[in-house]
Amino acid sequence: MPAVNRSPVVYTPSTVSELLELRTRMPQATIWAGGTALMSRYYFYPYPLSRDIISLGKVAELSRITRTERYLDIGSTATIEQILTVGHHILPPLLARALRQIGPPTLTSRATIGGNLCIPDLRLNLSASLSLFQVQVELRGGKRFGQQSRWIPLNRLYQKEGGLLIQDHEVLTRIRITFDEGDFQQFQQIGFPYRYPEEAVLFSLFARHSQSSVSDYRLAFTFPRIGIFRDRDIESAVTNQSLPLMHGDIAEISDLLRRSLHHFSSRIAPIQYARSIRAFERSLTLLNTRSVSR
Amino acid sequence: MNITCTINGKQAVYQVSSDMPLLDLLIDNAHITSLRPGCRKGHCGSCIVLIDDRPALSCLVPVFDIRGRDIITFERFQRTRDSTDIRKGFEQAEAVPCSYCYPSKTLITHGIISRNVNPEPDEILAAFALHACTCLEPDQVVRGVLQAGSYRGRRRKYARSK
Cβ contacts (< 8 Å) between A106 and chain B: which residues? Predict the structure, then answer.
């Protein structure tokens, strides 16, 4: 049978060491978790070239979720539905909302957290939301490469332009979320990031505030095709501000965001730009309302 | 690749490419006619089947993932009492879906009420969010599913009391 028409060979390792062995042997093989993103690509089937698939479905260790007092450890093939069920009462509201907005149960019962983080050309709901917390990810590589396991902060998983920084022989195995309490958390999915990535914006916000001032402010925008935008200047411009913010303050910080977005990428579409500014200004107004109603 | 699975109660072996979507296998090889190959990207929700009694988008499931599993399509499901509950529920709520999306809406409803016969409206709307067909208003969908759940609940109660 010619290679182009060959049915892909599907490998189903049952342990992580088997998986790493296969990954080392076949760095070009497609890693298959839930497959929801892969299957929805128009070029997925029939695939023009010969390829192999490593399915993670049978690796029990990768779908495990454990919780300690300080953090939540999530295996990379835990499904979104599984995480929402287990973490119902303990997940920060921002994350719970980001997870719920991924899709209906028919999709979330298959889609995995690892898949959501590792689509090579798209950044979806979880990347930016998780980056606002202290999140570490575990990458494991085969013995042959002299490296068994390394933990890195989530933001080091991506290039500035949004691409993935996982090496060919490595596999994302665990995501560790350290609990962090914030009294103002927001997640907004504006548009459809999977269907229309060039138009959608994902807005994540985490803040701590008292009645009179903001003590901690973290903000991230995801532009699905471009990457994650996070700017420390804007965060520090809001932190330590007195509440409620005056109209002039809001206009000034919005201007700063406008300039930063221009610097960040020229690929941001006008609609994404407008949506980002609108979401940001709305969140500041909401923060004001919250502080007054306390 | 040889795929062995049970489709509508009959065990079958198919020799197909391992990355073929289940949707294609069901239409081309198993000759199922209730499926609508709409967007093939998991956006329209019109190709739903039950895999081990849970609704799944058949366009997003590769055939290597269905080995040894039980697939039920609307052809088989409509002959069950579970389907009758749903049909009666939607009729009672005066909210009958159009013929295009009737199979998939029935299977989504089954997925909801088999877990909880009295689901929250948010839960219902979240499950139907995927469905692109707008033949029913959201409140009609909620009423239909709740009515179907009440039929299912009553039937279960009756079966237990017997």
Answer: 45, 48, 55-57, 108, 111, 127, 130
Q: How many residues are given for chain A?
A: 294
Same domain, B62 and B98: no
Burial class (CB in 10 A: 0-12, 13-18, 19+), A212: exposed
Taking the C-alpha atoms of residue A47 and residue B20, their distance in angstroms, rounded to an integer, is 10
Closest residue to B41, CB basis, from A40, A46, A106:
A40
Amino acid at B68: G
Among B27, B49, B76, identify where a domain stops. Answer: B76
My answer on whether B11 and B49 are in the same domain is yes
Domain co-membership, B9 together with B72: yes
Q: Which residues of B touch A8 (CB under 8 A)?
A: 17-19
What CATH number has the domain bearing residue B118?
Answer: 1.10.150.120
Tell me the shortest Cα–Cα distance from B16 to chain A, in angstroms: 8
Nearest to B20 among A45, A57, A104 (CB): A45
Antiparallel, parallel or unpaired: β A134-141 and A170-178: antiparallel
Same domain, B89 and B137: yes
Q: Quick check: B93 and B160 in contact, CB under 8 A?
A: no
Q: Please tell me whether residues B109 and B71 are part of one structural domain.
A: no
Q: What is the pTM of this model?
A: 0.91
- Cβ burial of A61 (10 Å; 0-12, 13-18, 19+) is middle
Count of domains in chain B?
2
Task: Indicate whether B103 and B56 sit together in one domain.
Answer: no
Asked if A42's CB is within 8 angstroms of B42's CB, the reply is no
Q: What is the ipTM of this complex?
A: 0.89
Q: CB distance from B70 to chain A under 8 Å?
A: no
> Which CATH number belongs to the domain containing residue B48 in this structure?
3.10.20.30
Contact yes or no for A234/A260 (Cβ under 8 A):
yes
Put simply, whether B111 touches A (Cβ < 8 Å) is yes
Mutate to test the interface with B, among A106, A107, A196 (most CBs of B within 10 A): A106
Cβ–Cβ gap B57/A106 under 8 Å: yes
Q: What residue has token string 């709740």?
A: B146
Per-residue pLDDT tens listing for chain B (162 residues):
899 999 999 999 999 999 999 999 999 999 999 898 888 888 888 999 999 999 999 999 999 999 999 999 999 999 999 999 999 999 999 999 999 999 999 999 999 999 999 999 999 999 998 878 889 999 999 999 999 999 999 999 998 887
Which range marks the domain in which residue B71 is found? 2-76
Whether residues B116 and B156 share a domain: the answer is yes
Residues B21 and B92 in one domain: no
